[in-house]
Amino acid sequence: MSGTETERANRIDPTLAFGFTNLPDNRQREPLRIVRGKGVFIFDERGKDYIEGASSFYCTSLGFSEEELIEAAVKQMRELPFYVTAAYRSVPVVEQLAERLAAMAPMANAKVAFAATGSEANDALLKFLWYHNNAMGKPKRKKVIARLGSYHGGTIATASLTGWVKYHAGFDLPMAGILHTAQPDYVQLGAPGESEEAFADRMVADLRALIEREDPETIGAFFAEPVSVSAALALPPKTYWEKITALLAEYEIRLFDDEVVTGFGRTGNTFGAETYGMAPDCMTVAKALTSAYQPLSAVLMSEEFYEGLERGSETVGMFSHAGTYHGHPVPAAVALRVLELMEERDILGHVRAISPHFAASLAKVEDHPLVSRSRSVGLAGAVDLTKDGAEAGALGAEVAARCEANGLFIRPSGDTIVMAPPLIITPGEIDEMFRRFRLALDETL
User: Fold this and answer.
1) CA distance 90 to 243
2) Alpha-carbon span 425 to 73, nearest angstrom
3) Which domains does the chain have, with CATH numbers?
């Protein structure tokens, strides 16, 4: 077989294991190969353009091919391409980023630990919880409660936290000590005639029952996103976070805020915690921290929580947690420039100014026969699809395929279409995004 024939064969029978696919399909179906991007657009190997309406896993906040971020990476690569941050050694840019993040965090005198991915940050925070509680004389408080439908990562621990129950069994998940409560999805779970406040009361009552059933003295933390984009943008109902926070305080259960998707402007504030009035003990960030140009994540901890790590470390002589790429200088330099650009270009102001146009564009498609409702917060939006007799999930999959054919990437979640474009998107680009979306709806109909 010639080199060309071998290359052609491998395009259908891939060497690469593709995540979030049905693996046998990859032997029959060629992937769409993306070769470049600019702003909110990406381009495949044939030159076709697509609007990246989901920021590629909700992460490329400043769009593609931003020269300032490229230059930040190149500059750091020339100065010092790599050095580990551990064992009493560091790199100035890593310390600068930590100080910047600590100043932004919604907890006083915050402490920062870096990792490479959102999954890894969430995994580390769970590990830190156990360590803290052991050091502080609370060894029974190891269980963690997360919510059905939410996504927290792909490690053994974070896939257990992830409330995608359908996919747990094949991996022997969830691991012991990980519990789940209902997603506060008022649209899908609210009873006829039930107000948002009454629904929030019911969610809190369900959580209280779970805590009492498991024994409050064994629960360490409640792990949640401010708003779960991964659960088809389930917007928390009025009074939900206020009541949940009070319940957790009553039982001395920590609130861990997963801001991997919502952090750095997605909801119209720096953190989703601000949007929903949350007061977390710790939070995790990733994705938009570098606009996904480099792999980097972080755990932001309250000083009181961090003191437990200090105590445990003092007992054994070392904090036995580190990673070769934790605090890598190149991603740190890119992240620092992202945060600078957000201020210089007033990205938050832009998101707040353009969000009404985005919400109005979502609302306009509600006149389509396949659309039942829409919702949004900041630059995250969702459209629920409906068609009599359609198999669950089939409509969402069909519309997603039609969107791709018309040059638009979105994220289907069952029969809901989720959109979260780069934060730099313009009114005209929003109009074009929804023009392509309506074409997909019309073709599907």
Assistant:
1) 42
2) 23
3) 32-65+346-444 (3.90.1150.10), 70-344 (3.40.640.10)
| 190 token code pair | 């609210």
pLDDT band at 13 (very low <50, low <70, confident <90, very high): confident
Is the pLDDT reported for residue 173 higher than 60? Answer: yes
For the CA atoms of 369, 404, 291, 78, the dihedral, rounded to the nearest 10 degrees, stands at -170
Q: Cis bond leading into 174, ω under 30°?
A: yes
The 10s digit of each residue's pLDDT in 352-396 is: 999 999 999 999 999 999 999 999 999 999 999 999 989 999 999
Alpha-carbon distance of 95 to 109, in angstroms, equals 15
- Is the distance from CB of 427 to CB of 359 less than 8 angstroms? no
pLDDT-above-90 percentage for the chain:
94
pLDDT in tens, 327-345: 999 999 999 999 999 999 9
> Parallel, antiparallel, or unpaired: how do β-strands 178-181 and 143-147 relate?
parallel
How far is residue 338 from each of residues 69, 129, 275, measured CA to CA in Å? 7, 29, 21
In DSSP terms, 408 is beta-bridged to 51
- Would you state the structure tokens that stand for residue 25, as one six-digit string? 């399909």
CB 239 within 8 A of CB 200: yes
In whole angstroms, how large is the CA radius of gyration of the chain? Answer: 22
What confidence score (pLDDT) does residue 6 get? 45
CB 383 within 8 A of CB 441: no
- HEC per residue, 293-344: CCCCEEEEECHHHHHHHHHHHHHHCCCCCCCCCCCCHHHHHHHHHHHHHHHH
170 Cβ contact list (under 8 Å, min separation 6): none
Q: Which residue type sits at 8? A: R
Residue the block writes with tokens 């861990």: 256
Residues 281 and 256 sit within 8 Å (Cβ to Cβ): yes
3-class secondary structure per residue, 155-178? CHHHHHHCECHHHCHHHCCCCCCE
Q: pLDDT at position 8, please? A: 46
Structure tokens at 259: 């801001």
Helix pair 67-79, 329-344: axis angle to 10 deg: 150
| pLDDT (mean) for 216-228 | 98
Contact call for residues 328 and 82 (beta carbons, < 8 A): yes
Q: Are 42 and 422 in contact (CB under 8 A)?
A: no
pLDDT in tens, 238-294: 999 999 999 999 999 999 999 999 999 999 999 999 999 999 999 999 999 999 999
CA 305 to chain centre: 23
Q: How many CA atoms does the CB half-sphere of 115 hold within 13 Å? A: 20
